[in-house]
Write a structure and sequence with these properties.
The structure holds two protein chains of two kinds.
Chain A (H helix, E strand, L loop, with lengths): L1 E5 L9 H10 L1 H14 L9 E6 H4 L11 E6 L10 E3 L14 H4 L4 E6 L1 H8 L6 H7 L4 E11 L9 H32 L5 H23 L10 E10 L2 E9 L6 H21 L2 E9 L3 E4 L1 H6 L8 H14 L7 E8 L8 H12 L5 E7 L6 H12 L3 E6 L5 H10 L4
Parallel strand pairs in A: 8-9, 8-11, 11-12, 12-13
Antiparallel strand pairs in A: 2-5, 6-7, 9-10
Helix pairs in contact in A: 7-8, 11-12, 12-13
Chain B lengths: L13 H18 L6 E6 L1 H9 L10 H15 L8 E4 L4 E6 L4 H21 L1 H6 L5 H19 L1 H13 L16 H22 L8 H6 L12 H8 L5 H17 L1 H4 L1 H21 L5 H14 L15 H17 L3 H6 L8 H11 L2 H8 L2 H7 L2 E6 L4 E6 L6 H11 L2 H4 L3 E6 L7 E6 L10 H12 L3 E6 L5 E7 L5
Parallel strand pairs in B: 1-3, 7-8
Antiparallel strand pairs in B: 2-3, 4-5, 6-7, 8-9
Helix pairs in contact in B: 1-4, 1-13, 2-3, 4-13, 4-14, 6-7, 6-11, 7-11, 7-22, 8-11, 10-11, 13-14, 13-15, 15-17, 18-20
Classes of the chains: A alpha/beta, B alpha/beta.
C-alpha cells in the first residue's frame, strides 16, 4: 500500500534558517574574508556574488577519531601483480595516511571552504555595525519621472489602442448570445426534418416547410453583425510617477602630494559605503571618478586610487568639472546625483570662496546629496569654513572629519543621520 | 502471461508511478518481501539538498552545522562537482522515500524498487534496526526535538543552545548504547516523561553530589566508593544523568542528541548489507517486470546501464578509487548466496554446506535479518567473490618500512581476507574504544576517561577539542588516559590543560 505525495511546491528553502545560523556562527571569519576581498575589488564589482573563503580547519567539528600510526589491515580490490609477502614502498609524503585508499577522498581536499553570499546577505553583513539601511531609504530623495503603464481594458478609446483579441472575444460572445434562440429552433427543425420518413405529398410539403424555415433561420443568424461598435475594447494606459532608477555618483578626491596611501584607503572605504547604499535604492548606478590637484581630470578607478601625483591643490577645478558634467551628461531631471568628496582639507586659500560660490550656485540645487569627508589629524583650513557655510544653506549637504579608518562607520552614520536631526 | 508495457516514453506521471508501484509491490510480495507502507514523495533538486544537509531527517532542530552542509552541497552541486542521489529513504513507518523530479520513468521505477521495497524491507526486518530504532515514533520524536530546542532558544538564547549542541555533537558517536536495548518511544509518553525526568534526574544528581560527609566516613573509607561502578561506554548518557551542574533543559538536549545518535547507529554498521539488499532487489524486481513484458527493452537498457554504474568496483590503483563500494560488495554477496543455493560448486559445498539445496529466497532473507556487515562478511564472503574482486590484504605497520601484502585471493588467503575485511567493519575499528572510567567524587570531581589502545593506533589530535567540549558539559576537569593492552596507562590528556 503506497501513497504518492508531490512535495515540489511545498516546504521550499528548508535550509534557510540553518544557512543563516551558519553565517551567524562564522560572522567574524566571513566579515574578514569580505573586507579582505573588498580592498582588492573595484567599487562597482562589489556586492555581486561575494565569494567568501573560510579556512577548513575553522569549520571542522572535532570528534574522537583515529589518527595516524599503529597497525592497519586494508583490504583492497583489483590485485593484478602482488603475491603474498610482496612489499610495497610506503609513499614519501606522510600526509593523509597510507595506500591512497580509504583516506584519499578526504586527504587532498581544498584547504579552504568557499561559498557565495547573496547580495542581501553581503549588505547586511557590511552594514552590520551601522543599522542604517532603512533610514537611508527614507532619507535619500529620489528623482521622479513620469511613466505610462498599462491599466487594464476599457470600452472607449482611440483606434490605435484597440485590443483586437479582447474585441473579437467580446464579439464572439455577443454573437453566441444573440443567435442562441435561432440555433435552438434550427436544431429542432433539423431534427423534425430528419425524423420525417414518409414520401407522400403531405410529408413532402412539410419537408419543404422545414427546409424553408431552416433557410430563414440561417439567414437570420448570418444577419447578426460579425463585429459591432459595442464589442470594441481598448487598452488603457495611465501615467504614473515613478522614481527614476538611475543614479550617478561622483567620487571626487584630492590626489595632491599630501594625500598618502592610507588616506586614499580611507577614502575608498567611504566611496564603497556610499555606493553600497545606493545599490539598495537604484538599479543603475554610474560612477564617475574625478581626481584633482591643481587641475581636475576624469579617470578610471585604477588610476583614481593608485596613480601618484604631486603638486598644490585647487579644489574648485574638480567642482567646476562636476558642474560641467551635470550640465552636459547627467541632466538632473533624468539622474539622481550623488557626490562624495574626500580630501585632506588642503586648498589654495584664495580658491575656497570660489568653491563656496560654485557649490551654492551650480551644484547643490541639482544634487540629491553631497557628502564631504576631510581626512586629516590636524586643524581645519579655509576649505572647511567655506563648506560650513554651504552646509548651513543646504540640508542635503553633509561634512565630516575623519582621522583614521576606524572612524569611518560612525562618521558615515553621522553623515546620513544629519538630515533627520 | 502477455501484457502490454506500462509505459513507453521516458516521462513519468503520478498515475504511472502508482501503476509501477502497484506492479512492483505485487512482485515484491511474491518474493516474500515484508515492508512498511510506503509514502513516496516527489521532490526537487533543492529539496534533495535540504534532505542531504539534514542527514536525511525530514525535520530537525536548527543548527549551523546543517547550514554548513547545505552551503557545501549547494556549492558543489552548482559547480557540477557532485551529482545528487536519485532517491533518499527514511527509516520510518510509513517508510518515506524521496524521488527526484528529474528522474525518467525508468529511473523512478528503479528507485521505487530499490528504496520502497529494498531498503524498506531491510529497515523493517534487520535485527539491528528492530532493536535500536522505532520507525513508528521517529517523526514524532523529531518534531518534539525541534520544538523543544526552539523553546530553549527562546528562553536561553541561540548562542547558549548552540554551544551546548556543539558539545553534544562532538560526543555524538559516544552517545549510543551498544549492547543494551533502549525503550521505545511515543510522542505523548515522551512529553510526560520529559517533565517527570526534569524533577527526577535533578534529585538523583543532587544525591550523588551531596557535599555533607556521611557520619560513618571512617567505615566507608576502606571500601572507597567507586563511581561509576563499571566503565560506561555511553558518554552522553553518563553526562545526562550525572553531570553535576547541568540544568534540566540542558540534560534534555543532551538526551535528544543521544536519541538521534541511537537512531542512526545501525546505519553505518549495515551499509554493505543494506545497500546490497536494495540493489539486489531492484535488480530482481525490475527483471521480473521485464519477464512479464511490463517494461520495454529501452526501459530495461536504461535500468541496466544505471545498475552497472551503481555496482562498479574500481581497482585500488584507479585514480578515482575511493575504497570498497558497498553497493558492489553487498550486491555481489547476495548474488553469491543465490548462486550457491541454486548451482553450488564443490568448493561451495565445502565452504557453505548450510546453503546447499536451500531456497535462495529464504537464504537471503535469513542473511538480511540476522546479520550486520561484520558478521555478514565473516559468514558469507565466498572464495569465488574474493577471486572475482581480486581482493588482497595490505598490512600497514608504522614500525615497518614498507607495506606488506599479507594475503591474496588464493587458497591460503581466503580466510585471512574474509576475517580482515569483516574486522574493517567492526565497531572497534570504526570508533576508538573510549569509556567513562571513573569520577573523582570526593576530590575535585574530575571525570576520567580511558582509551584502550587498539593495534597501537593513535587518536586524532582533535581529541583535545573534544575534551574541551566535554569539559563544557561536565564543568570540572577532564582526563583521558590511554591504556595499553596490559592495562598500563601510557599517556594522559587533560582539560583544562595542566600537566601530562
Amino acid at each position: 500500500m503506497s501513497q504518492l505525495i508531490d512535495r515540489r511546491q511545498s516546504a521550499k528553502k528548508k535550509s534557510t534558517v540553518n544557512r543563516q545560523r551558519f553565517l551567524r556562527r562564522y560572522k567574524q571569519q566571513i566579515k574578514k574574508s569580505v573586507l579582505d576581498s573588498l580592498t582588492k575589488k573595484n567599487i562597482s564589482d562589489i556586492a555581486k556574488d561575494e565569494a567568501v573563503t573560510i579556512p577548513k580547519k575553522d569549520l571542522s567539528e572535532p570528534r574522537f577519531r583515529w589518527g595516524k600510526g599503529g597497525v592497519v589491515d586494508r583490504i583492497l580490490p583489483g590485485n593484478k601483480e602482488y603475491a603474498k609477502g610482496d612489499t610495497i614502498p610506503r609513499p614519501q609524503s606522510s600526509e593523509g595516511g597510507a595506500s591512497g585508499g580509504d583516506a584519499s577522498n578526504q586527504g587532498e581536499g581544498e584547504d579552504s571552504f568557499q561559498f557565495y553570499l547573496t547580495k542581501e546577505e553581503f549588505i547586511d553583513l557590511y552594514f552590520d555595525d551601522l543599522e542604517l539601511p532603512d533610514m537611508v531609504r527614507k532619507d535619500l530623495g529620489k528623482m521622479v519621472t513620469e511613466k505610462s503603464i498599462r491599466a487594464g481594458i476599457i470600452n472607449s478609446g482611440i483606434p490605435v489602442n484597440i485590443n483586437v483579441v479582447r474585441s473579437l472575444r467580446q464579439a464572439l460572445s455577443r454573437r453566441l448570445a444573440i443567435t442562441a434562440s435561432y440555433r435552438k429552433k434550427l436544431e429542432k427543425t433539423a431534427e423534425l426534418l430528419a425524423n420525417l420518413k414518409g414520401q407522400d405529398k403531405k410529408s413532402q410539403a412539410k419537408r419543404e416547410e422545414y427546409l424553408h424555415k431552416i433557410e430563414v433561420l440561417k439567414r437570420k443568424m448570418k444577419a447578426v453583425p460579425f463585429i459591432d461598435t459595442v464589442d470594441l475594447r481598448y487598452n488603457h494606459r495611465i501615467k504614473v510617477m515613478l522614481p527614476a532608477t538611475q543614479a550617478v555618483m561622483f567620487c571626487v578626491m584630492d590626489v595632491s602630494g599630501s594625500m598618502d596611501e592610507v588616506k586614499k584607503a580611507i577614502a575608498k572605504q567611504f566611496f564603497i559605503l556610499l555606493y553600497l547604499f545606493l545599490t539598495k535604492t537604484y538599479e543603475n548606478i554610474e560612477i564617475i571618478f574625478i581626481r584633482h590637484h591643481t587641475s581636475a581630470k576624469e579617470v578610471n578607478e585604477q588610476e583614481f586610487f593608485y596613480s601618484r601625483e604631486t603638486g598644490g591643490t585647487v579644489v574648485s577645478s574638480a567642482l567646476e568639472m562636476v558642474a560641467e558634467l551635470i550640465e552636459t551628461r547627467f541632466p538632473p531631471e533624468m539622474w539622481n546625483i550623488y557626490i562624495a568628496q574626500a580630501s585632506d582639507g588642503d586648498n589654495w586659500n584664495a580658491d575656497s570662496p570660489y568653491c563656496e560660490t560654485l557649490l551654492q550656485k551650480s551644484i547643490m540645487p541639482y544634487v540629491q546629496y553631497f557628502t564631504y569627508i576631510e581626512i586629516m589629524p590636524r586643524h581645519h583650513q579655509s576649505l572647511w569654513e567655506a563648506y560650513q557655510a554651504v552646509q548651513e544653506a543646504f540640508p542635503n549637504f553633509a561634512m565630516q572629519h575623519i582621522e583614521n579608518i576606524e572612524q569611518i562607520y560612525p562618521v558615515f552614520r553621522e553623515l546620513f543621520t544629519r538630515k533627520t536631526a | 502471461m502477455r501484457k502490454k508495457p506500462l509505459s513507453v516514453g521516458s516521462d513519468w506521471t503520478p498515475e504511472l508511478i502508482m501503476a509501477y508501484d502497484k506492479e512492483i509491490s505485487r512482485l515484491a510480495a511474491d518474493f516474500g518481501l515484508d515492508t512498511f507502507p510506503n509514502q513516496i514523495e516527489i521532490i526537487s533538486a533543492e529539496q534533495m539538498m535540504d534532505a542531504y544537509a539534514m542527514t536525511g531527517m525530514p525535520i530537525g532542530y536548527y543548527h549551523w552545522t546543517f547550514g554548513k552542509h547545505f552551503v557545501d552541497i549547494a556549492q558543489r552541486y552548482q559547480r557540477g562537482e557532485m551529482g545528487l542521489a536519485y532517491e533518499m529513504v527514511i527509516n520510518s513507518n510509513p517508510c518515506i522515500a524521496y524521488l527526484m523530479e528529474e528522474n525518467t520513468m525508468a529511473m523512478q521505477a528503479l528507485v521505487i524498487a530499490h528504496a520502497c521495497y529494498g531498503h524498506n524491507s531491510f529497515f523493517k526486518n534487520n535485527y539491528l534496526f528492530q532493536m535500536w530504532t522505532s520507525p513508528d515514533a521517529i517523526i514524532d520524536y523529531l518534531v518534539f526535538a525541534r520544538n523543544f530546542v526552539a523553546q530553549c532558544e527562546e528562553k536561553h538564547g541561540i548562542t547558549e543552545v548552540e554551544a551546548l549542541l556543539d558539545s553534544c555533537h562532538a560526543l555524538m558517536n559516544y552517545g549510543v548504547d551498544r549492547y543494551k536495548h533502549p525503550q521505545k518511544l511515543s510522542i505523548h509518553e515522551e512529553k510526560i516523561r520529559q517533565q517527570n525526568r526534569e524533577i527526577y534526574i535533578q534529585s538523583q544528581v543532587n544525591e550523588l553530589w551531596r557535599t555533607i560527609p556521611e557520619k560513618s566516613a571512617e567505615k566507608n573509607a576502606e571500601k572507597k566508593k567507586i563511581f561509576p561502578q563499571e566503565p560506561q561506554e555511553n558518554i552522553l548518557y553518563f553526562i545526562e544523568k550525572n553531570a553535576p551542574l547541568l540544568e534540566p533543559w540542558q540534560r534534555e538536549i543532551v538526551r535528544i542528541v543521544r536519541k538521534l545518535a541511537q537512531y542512526f547507529y545501525p546505519q553505518p554498521q549495515t551499509k554493505i548489507m543494506n545497500e546490497g539488499w536494495a540493489t539486489f532487489w531492484h535488480y530482481n524486481l525490475i527483471y521480473a517486470l521485464y519477464d512479464e513484458k511490463l517494461i520495454t527493452d529501452g526501459f530495461m537498457l536504461e535500468v541496466l546501464d544505471n545498475h552497472t554504474n551503481v555496482i562498479t568496483q574500481l581497482g585500488f590503483d584507479h585514480p578515482h578509487f575511493t575504497g570498497i563500494n558497498p553497493y558492489a560488495l553487498g550486491f555481489r554477496m547476495y548474488q553469491e548466496i543465490k548462486r550457491i543455493c541454486e548451482a553450488p560448486t564443490s568448493e561451495d559445498k565445502e565452504w557453505f554446506p548450510h546453503l546447499i539445496g536451500q531456497d535462495w529466497r529464504k537464504a537471503v532473507d535469513l542473511a538480511m535479518r540476522n546479520f550486520k556487515d561484520e558478521s555478514f562478511i565473516a559468514q558469507y564472503l565466498s572464495p569465488k567473490l574474493i577471486r572475482d574482486m581480486k581482493l588482497f590484504n595490505v598490512l600497514d605497520d608504522d614500525e615497518k618500512p614498507d607495506y606488506i601484502v599479507s594475503a591474496i585471493h588464493n587458497e591460503t588467503g581466503y580466510k585471512v581476507i574474509r576475517e580482515a575485511l569483516a574486522k574493517q567493519y567492526q565497531l572497534s575499528a570504526q570508533d576508538p574504544n573510549i569509556q567513562v572510567y571513573k569520577v573523582d567524587i570526593e576530590g575535585d570531581r574530575s571525570l576520567i576517561l580511558q582509551y584502550t589502545e587498539y593495534r597501537r593506533m593513535n587518536l586524532d589530535v582533535s581529541l583535545n577539542e573534544v575534551l574541551k567540549h566535554l569539559y563544557f558539559l561536565w564543568k570540572f576537569p577532564i582526563r583521558l588516559e590511554v591504556v595499553d593492552d596490559n592495562g598500563v596507562i601510557v599517556k594522559t590528556f587533560s582539560c583544562p590543560n595542566k600537566e601530562i
